[in-house]
Amino acid sequence: MRRIAVVGAGHWGPNLIRNFHDKQRSAVARVVDRDAARLAQVAARFPDIAVSDDAEDAFGDRGIDAVVIATPTVTHHPLVLRALEAGKHVLVEKPIATRTDEAEQLCALAESNGLVLMVGHVFLYNAAVRRVKQYLDAGELGRVYYVSMVRTNLGPIRADVNAAWDLASDDISIVNYWLDADPLTVSAVGGSWINPKVEDTVFATLRYPGDVLVNLHTSWLDPRKNRDITIVGDRKMLTFDDLNLNEPIRLYDKYVSDEQTKVGFVDTFATFRASVRDGDITIPQVALGEPLRAECDEFLECLETGKRPLSDGRVGARVVRALEALARSTQAAGREERIAP
């Protein structure tokens, strides 16, 4: 049974503690947090788990196999670096770091030491996201034209990173996974109203190989919680609503008929109707489990077998590279920025 230390018992930490402390494949041996009140809550809920306010207690414990880090983004790099130097396998929440060179440093260190480095891009372990990937790989939608992604809510408002670093990292990881590609360029604008120089809302457009456009709308300053994605292909179209637990995916047999539109110009309503196919809507049944549970299981499997995680450090580093270019574009009032490979 693997012994795990969880560093960070705040917003996401309790879910990680719950999943890893099942006492079957793993057990949480120690929880670290600087907030005494949080540690008291952990101690009351899990009296068999040691608690402390210093991460070195976890890094220096030879009985701990792996460290799970769920702390503010700006602390990810130094904590992961220290954990890897101590010989611990690491699962760190996304994004892996705030700079590409730091992310690549962590990847190189993990690889040279034979350690598992996994990033918590939890949507890659979502059953509906994986079903969409199956449709795309099978060519069900045909050639993909564009992807539109909306990720909004009212809060939580952060001061350490902006809305893109907090929210767009999920969407970029999803699209990279779906398209088996990294974005080539990005253009973005944002607005800061709550905290100076911290964008509360970001609108971004990324260009992927094959002339695929991806539009992102991220905001923690919105009256409604939205997790909506639309994929438009030349054969079919698809929508994904992560908040719809019963029917997250809808597949639309809709497209514009090339044969009809090539004949003359559309000057009547009947001709217009003939140029657009409006077929059935299919709602596939998706057995939704807990994506975080699947992510934690993958981490444990990688510790047991040595396999490479789906969301490994290199995957996380590519997301950071795109986010850095997005930040440069935002600072330059929307100038299109190339994302260096």
Structure explained in plain terms:
The chain is of the alpha/beta class. It is built from eleven helices and 15 strands.
Distance between the termini: 39 Å
Helix and strand composition category: alpha/beta
Low-confidence stretches: none
Helix content: 25-40%
- Find the count of extended strands (DSSP E, 2+ residues): 15
Primary descriptors:
341 residues, alpha/beta, six-stranded parallel beta sheet, 11 helices, 35% helix, 29% strand
Give a summary of the structure in a few sentences.
This protein is α/β, with parallel strands linked by helices. The protein is built from 11 helices and 15 strands.
List the helices and strands and how they pair.
Layout lengths: L1 E6 L5 H8 L5 E7 L3 H10 L4 E3 L3 H4 L6 E4 L6 H10 L3 E5 L6 H13 L4 E4 L6 H11 L6 E11 L8 H17 L5 E7 L9 E8 L3 E8 L1 E13 L3 E5 L7 E8 L1 H4 L7 H7 E7 L8 H15 L7 H19 L5 E2 L3
Parallel strand pairs: 1-2, 1-4, 2-3, 4-5, 5-6, 7-10
Antiparallel strand pairs: 7-11, 8-9, 8-15, 9-10, 11-12, 12-13, 13-14
